């Protein structure tokens, strides 16, 4: 992950003649910046008095099904241009509870750069990014590295509560007799470990189970889900083949080869997918291993700066980070409907309509969840009953939707997905020539996030 | 093994409850005395008379449960009571007109699956009425005749109810046992045809599936149930003094094994879907859904139907096995059960258990055992015959009539006849965090009402809050709620020592020490801080409400709410109105009580209201009986064998001898010599000696922690010796002692009706059974007068009057009924 941070810096496309640009900048006024923007067909979301905050670069490691045990590589490159580092993670390793700090130190960043870790389930790195936006907007910082990291293949596994209790008392035991009697009290049952589960604390329901119920609630069939999953894999494959996934950086897995591609992209056939059995609600459920996102190791990072600072440093920003919202709802029956709640809210904030958006990137937790969200957004009844609207939100058109694959095909390292979404939107806006992009994601706890991203004038 | 299986199978229908809850309860009661950190003055009365009935009554909670479960069994009245159509006769009916005429059952063919939908248009619940059965027979004939149909799904159109049972009116409408037997036989025939259906039928169950509904479901080839909390399966017939009369006693043992079948049929308890799956009662579970493109309820029903259709097709194509593969434990159990000796042992164990708990006063459980035995030992022909005949006989017993009456009364007492209050109570403040106050908080806070619990001391408050927590935590342990729900419920409870949150309160219930001066002081303090619309309810068991209201600035907002301890176990709430209490205040109090899940009687104000007033003379008589030399154990045996769940001596100990003395003295002052009998000094002397009942470890009995058996307190012999009275042999036979106790109770109840304290006899019966433990098999004092005969009762009372005087003088209303045998309290 440390290498990640460094790559963020390296990948930032520094203009060859930054001095010239700097000179130019001294001449150009804000008005000029605006003038540039106005050449676009649609108006910019830039507002007077609100700082423009830009995404300079985003990178990620390939999302791997397994095999990575550590990303830390020490390098000596000092980076004091960064004011702050924020990382998002979900399942925390007890030894590195502030993983952002350990990573930045490990990466050789100046030990004068403060770092903190945030968590909000699947949208943890979104929180990292929006916290960065907040710090910059408040004038606290000018450049922040935000990212996410997850090591699903090395989650902390705890001893059972009874065993923990015994072990703690053992520490306090004074005499040998006390110790022996404590050791004697250990039973086989004490030794079974506790695995962290992907289950809601409030309802004790696993996310897959909830997704299956959600799909059923919206009448999403198995075939619809498999088709969407297949679409995701197919699109991801062609994007990978076409070299569009530029945010991926190679890195060396210790003891193994260099990994430079996501290894979960596996376009299959409907027949093959149709043969799989339901994974959560057995036997009549519809959510299977093939139409769910898979949990992987992975890390991602973005460099967020104020526009002035980015230009001053000679960077060529990729996009503006504009309005964003967080939403939350019933963690039982609407666990994964975050995008449905977040999308209309963020559009309203930005003063945009659904049709203004050129690029949609939604987090694909489950094919059934995406389809349910699309149906919810397309339902007048749902809009009126649960969103308090007069009519439906309207579903995003599929020709603009997750065109380079998504979490279903690329994988889903909880904490790192958010940065991937934002970076992908920025890259797609550049590639496709659109102006506005929308990121939306759901998260455990019945929470959700949406953000509007505006292309940086080319 | 068999014994193990029976642990939970206590028979509860009439009077008894399992030992566990009784023990629990006594824990609580004793807790109020010995363990409680509250100030001593408090212990004495705040848990009060209330607890009087408490123990007692918890035991009677069964019939009411029956009620809830059998919910809807009664429903609308139908005058048609002749035999049902036997399916075969309908076969010739042409399809179209029959379909047009159908209102209760309809079907739709989806591909090769017929979806049969049940929906009673006139009721919130589906019942197996004559009409329902007739239409069902027609529909099934069409389904069987339709070659395009390979299988069928049976589902209700009502989200909260599959089929709640048979139509009680249909049974009550029969003139004699033979007619009921015919009814049962028709039901058996119908379900036999379902069972032997050549096309598999899948029962898709969401909501209550009880009684006849369950018998229908288990006749189907496959059952799918939703995991919803509303989905419950059970055979509550025993609580109505009946048995499952449409094949239940024959199919259940085969399906879930003898021990489980006995447990279900003898307790009548509800089984939740997940448990039903484990028992093998249903094959598959379906999760309830949240909102989608429709409301959660509608969508869940659609989903259940979709899944059921999928399974129906799977069964036809043999992809889904109908019989589940038995586990090794089940195989062992089957093997063990194959020995006649083992089965006999089970029958005997169950029989003796039932006898022990019912004292032989309830015929239904014994008949159930008989039917099961006939079926298992002599084969289905004998079994079905026994079932239908016994069903007919039971339907015409007075016990069944009494239990059905209680059930119907209970349903009536779960309605608010005062209309909807102007303001919903969203914040309820409770004064006093003692056993009562905390108990009230406990049943309020989990209903989404913001509850403020106030006490004067930190330790008292802490004890109260702990009680609420413990109540919820016990529910968590039983997996009724999750620990998360527990915590979120507790967030609605505010504990405090001052009146700071009272301005927001819509109602204040005080549960402080039973002393008129303290009540006045509290009332004034409350009125100084609450908003003008706030209602002041006083939880007292004996102090007249008008005396308390005398200190109020707004007596129209003052009302009595008499809870019974322990509040979370006792179902009854006695609401007392004064002449000044406004109708809206009453409506609001009833609404709160209903929200708390109570069965409510509303009575007029007077000393002891209704419940306390009925109990006091009986306890006075009990003291006299002791003074006459009857051993407390003997007294207990006499009362329990009459049908009271708890013996009179034990009851006095549970209530607290001090409390009993206090009430006896107070009411004695109000009513004079009529409330005499036993010498109050007996009780007072006992209190002086420290024999305050269970809470002090000694009363009529000696209580030792951890010891289940209790011995008579040897020291009370001396006390009784001091007050020894000479028994009159003419009125001292066992039966006479029983009738002396009961007749005083009943006479006082009738007097309450005569004086207008009670609005109607029905509420009198409900109050006596659910609040005081009057024998449920007798259906309450008024039903008892009807069935026993007012003239016979008066005759007995005159006999006792001759010996003891005016304590046994029958009241005018009772005399009127005695003179005219057509006069009855219940039609």
Automatic annotation (TrEMBL), chain A:
Keyword Transferase: yes
Residue span(s) of domain Thiolase C-terminal: 315-454
Subcellular location(s) of the protein: Endoplasmic reticulum; Mitochondrion inner membrane; Mitochondrion outer membrane
Oligomer and partners: Heterotetramer of 2 alpha/HADHA and 2 beta/HADHB subunits; forms the mitochondrial trifunctional enzyme. Also purified as higher order heterooligomers including a 4 alpha/HADHA and 4 beta/HADHB heterooligomer which physiological significance remains unclear. The mitochondrial trifunctional enzyme interacts with MTLN. Interacts with RSAD2/viperin.
A GO term, aspect molecular function: acetyl-CoA C-myristoyltransferase activity
EC number: 2.3.1.155, 2.3.1.16
Name recorded for this polypeptide: Trifunctional enzyme subunit beta, mitochondrial
One GO term describing the cellular component: endoplasmic reticulum
Function in brief: Mitochondrial trifunctional enzyme catalyzes the last three of the four reactions of the mitochondrial beta-oxidation pathway. The mitochondrial beta-oxidation pathway is the major energy-producing process in tissues and is performed through four consecutive reactions breaking down fatty acids into acetyl-CoA. Among the enzymes involved in this pathway, the trifunctional enzyme exhibits specificity for long-chain fatty acids.
PANTHER family cross-referenced by the UniProt entry: ACETYL-COA C-ACYLTRANSFERASE, TRIFUNCTIONAL ENZYME SUBUNIT BETA, MITOCHONDRIAL
Domain annotation Thiolase N-terminal: ranges: 69-308
Keyword GTP-binding annotated: no
Domain of life: Eukaryota
Annotated GO biological process: fatty acid beta-oxidation
Family listed: Belongs to the thiolase-like superfamily. Thiolase family.
The reaction(s) this protein catalyses: decanoyl-CoA + acetyl-CoA = 3-oxododecanoyl-CoA + CoA; butanoyl-CoA + acetyl-CoA = 3-oxohexanoyl-CoA + CoA; dodecanoyl-CoA + acetyl-CoA = 3-oxotetradecanoyl-CoA + CoA; tetradecanoyl-CoA + acetyl-CoA = 3-oxohexadecanoyl-CoA + CoA
Pathway: Lipid metabolism; fatty acid beta-oxidation
Keywords recorded for this protein, A-Z: Acetylation, Acyltransferase, Endoplasmic reticulum, Fatty acid metabolism, Lipid metabolism, Membrane, Mitochondrion, Mitochondrion inner membrane, Mitochondrion outer membrane, Transferase, Transit peptide
TrEMBL record, chain B:
Site description Important for long-chain enoyl-CoA hydratase activity, residues in chain: 215, 237
Domain of life: Eukaryota
EC nos: 1.1.1.211, 4.2.1.17
Pathway: Lipid metabolism; fatty acid beta-oxidation
Domain 3-hydroxyacyl-CoA dehydrogenase C-terminal: 608-703
GO terms assigned for molecular function: enoyl-CoA hydratase activity; long-chain (3S)-3-hydroxyacyl-CoA dehydrogenase (NAD+) activity; NAD+ binding; transferase activity
A Pfam family reported for this protein in Swiss-Prot or TrEMBL: 3HCDH
UniProt keywords, alphabetically: Acetylation, Fatty acid metabolism, Lipid metabolism, Lyase, Membrane, Methylation, Mitochondrion, Mitochondrion inner membrane, Multifunctional enzyme, NAD, Oxidoreductase, Phosphoprotein, Transferase, Transit peptide
Cross-referenced InterPro entries: 3-OHacyl-CoA_DH_CS, 3-OHacyl-CoA_DH_NAD-bd, 3HC_DH_C, 6-PGluconate_DH-like_C_sf, ClpP/crotonase-like_dom_sf, Enoyl-CoA_hyd/isom_CS, Enoyl-CoA_hydra/iso, Fa_ox_alpha_mit
Ribosomal protein is among the record's keywords: no
Recorded GO CC terms: mitochondrial fatty acid beta-oxidation multienzyme complex; mitochondrial inner membrane
Subcellular location(s) per record: Mitochondrion inner membrane
Chain residue ranges for the region called Disordered: 22-44
Gene Ontology BP, a term: fatty acid beta-oxidation
Active site per database record: 574 (for hydroxyacyl-coenzyme a dehydrogenase activity)
Annotated site (Important for hydroxyacyl-coenzyme A dehydrogenase activity): 562
Catalytic activities: a long-chain (3S)-3-hydroxy fatty acyl-CoA + NAD(+) = a long-chain 3-oxo-fatty acyl-CoA + NADH + H(+); (3S)-hydroxyoctanoyl-CoA = (2E)-octenoyl-CoA + H2O; (3S)-hydroxyhexadecanoyl-CoA + NAD(+) = 3-oxohexadecanoyl-CoA + NADH + H(+); (3S)-hydroxyoctanoyl-CoA + NAD(+) = 3-oxooctanoyl-CoA + NADH + H(+)
Family label: In the N-terminal section; belongs to the enoyl-CoA hydratase/isomerase family.
Subunit structure: Heterotetramer of 2 alpha/HADHA and 2 beta/HADHB subunits; forms the mitochondrial trifunctional enzyme. Also purified as higher order heterooligomers including a 4 alpha/HADHA and 4 beta/HADHB heterooligomer which physiological significance remains unclear. The mitochondrial trifunctional enzyme interacts with MTLN.
Protein name: Trifunctional enzyme subunit alpha, mitochondrial
Organism: Gasterosteus aculeatus aculeatus
UniProt lineage: Eukaryota, Metazoa, Chordata, Craniata, Vertebrata
